[in-house]
Structures are given as C-alpha cells and as structure tokens.
Design brief:
The chain has 211 residues and is α/β, with parallel strands linked by helices. It has one domain: Rossmann fold. The protein has 7 helices and 9 strands. The strands form 2 sheets. Strands 3-4-2-5-6-1-7 form a 7-stranded parallel sheet, sandwiched between helices. A two-stranded antiparallel sheet has the order 8-9. Helix 5 packs across helix 6. It starts with a helix and ends in a 6-residue tail after the last strand. Bound molecules: adenosine-5'-triphosphate (ATP) and magnesium ion. Adenosine-5'-triphosphate (ATP) binds next to helix 3.
Length: 211
C-alpha cells in the first residue's frame, strides 16, 4: 500500500497545488467522478496519478486516455519513471503485445486503440477501476468527439469506473460534468502569470489587469 503522502515524498513534492487539493477535497480518493478544469501546467497529471494509486491499492487497472500517440509516449515515460506502477502502452494496431496489457497497473492508450481493444473484448478491461481522459474538451470536437463519447459510454457499461476528465480549456464544463456524472473541480491558479501587453515603440505596456 502506498499512501498519497508516501507518493508525494517520492516525487519530492512538498505542497499540493490548488487544483490538486480541491480534487482530493472533492473525493478523488473516495472514487468520485471528477471533471478538473485548471490552466496549463497547473498540475493536473498528478491528480490522475493519485487516482492510479487508489486503484493500485485495490488491485484494479487504470487507463489514461490521450488523443495523440506522441502524448501517450510522453505520459508512458513519465509514469514509468515513478517506479511505482507497471505501465503499459497501447497505441498502435492490434498486435501480440496486447496480450500482455493485463499485467500492468496503468495503461496509457489512445482513444482509438482502447476502443478497438474493447471491441475485441480484451479480458482485462473488466478490471478497469479508473479511467482518466486527458484533454477531455475533445468530446466537443466534431472529428474526435464521437469516438471518445462512445468509448466512455462503453467503459461505463463494462465496469462503472471512477472517471476523471482533465482539461485546461472547456467551454461548457457544467454540461460536461453532468454528462459524466462528475463533480466539477475548477481552479484558476497558474504557475506563470499571463499578462496581456501592448508593444508601444520598444516597450510593452500593460493596460489591463492580468487575465
Ligand atoms: N504540487 C506540485 N508541486 C510542484 N510541482 C508540481 C506539482 N504538481 C505538479 N507539478 C509540476 O508541474 C508541471 C506541470 O504539471 P502538469 O503537466 O500536470 O500540468 P497540466 O495541468 O497537465 O497542464 P496541461 O493542461 O498543459 O496538460 C510538471 O512538471 C509537474 O511535475
Ligand atoms: Mg496535462
């Protein structure tokens, strides 16, 4: 059993960021569905990792769904480096490596690949306890949205997992949270302040408040 505290110590994290604390307060460890909306680089990935931890302690599989293969590779490397989870990567065409996916605690997958694995009845999918959807605003995307929507609907039917959606830019968070049956976790804290400036000659003026 690894506690949140142990995990944070391992990562050298001294203090949680606001969105992370809010996610814990909203029931992250109690299996609540959450839709987390916070700015870029505000630390949403760690929220997913804390959910993996819970699933690991319950011997369930976590899946982390990303829109692009490149992002899958990046997250795979990042989660593997933690040395806490056994991590699998599911991105390509169906192949023999897929037979080993059930051995992992966390599976990083593209939506298309996971959709294909579910349709081929990969037996481990019945052990999925946590589903994280990174860049979940893509549900609104006319191209990718429908695949993701069907995928989430199938996953909900198979295992009733804890669902965690992550995004920096959702136009309709309340509506999406309702569809996911999730609590909304919203925070505006960002690591680097963004100021809107106007270049006047060679200097920049800041007419507005920071946004
Ligand atoms: N509590 C923390 N203390 C210090 N650093 C942290 C903390 N939480 C996360 N970080 C670091 O902040 C950086 C950005 O985090 P992360 O990639 O999770 O952002 P994000 O919210 O997913 O952003 P994006 O929307 O761009 O994907 C990472 O390098 C991560 O290690
Ligand atoms: Mg992120």
């Amino acid at each position: 059993m690894i506690s949140v505290q142990d995990y944070l110590e391992r990562l050298g994290i001294a203090e949680l960021r606001p969105a992370q604390q809010k996610a814990l307060d909203a029931g992250l460890e109690r299996g609540r569905n959450l839709l987390v909306c916070s700015p870029t680089a505000s630390g949403k990935t760690l929220i997913a990792e804390l959910a993996f931890l819970q699933a690991l302690n319950e011997k369930k599989i976590s899946v982390y769904i990303v829109p692009l293969k490149a992002l899958a590779q990046e997250k795979y490397a990042q989660f593997t480096k933690r040395n806490v989870f056994s991590v699998g990567l599911a991105v390509g065409d169906l192949d023999e490596k897929d037979q080993h996916l059930h051995q992992h605690d966390v599976i990083v997958a593209t939506a298309e690949k996971l959709d294909s694995l579910l349709r081929h009845h990969a037996p481990w999918t019945a052990r999925i306890g946590v589903v994280v959807v990174d860049e979940i605003h893509l549900l609104n995307d006319p191209g990718r949205g429908p695949t993701l929507e069907i995928l989430l609907t199938m996953l909900k039917r198979i295992t009733r997992p804890q669902l965690i959606g992550l995004s920096a830019t959702i136009g309709n968070p309340e509506e999406l949270a309702e569809w996911l049956a999730a609590d909304l976790v919203v925070d505006d804290w960002r690591p680097v302040r963004l100021d809107k400036g106007v270049l006047v000659g060679t200097s920049v003026e800041f007419p507005d408040k920071p946004f």
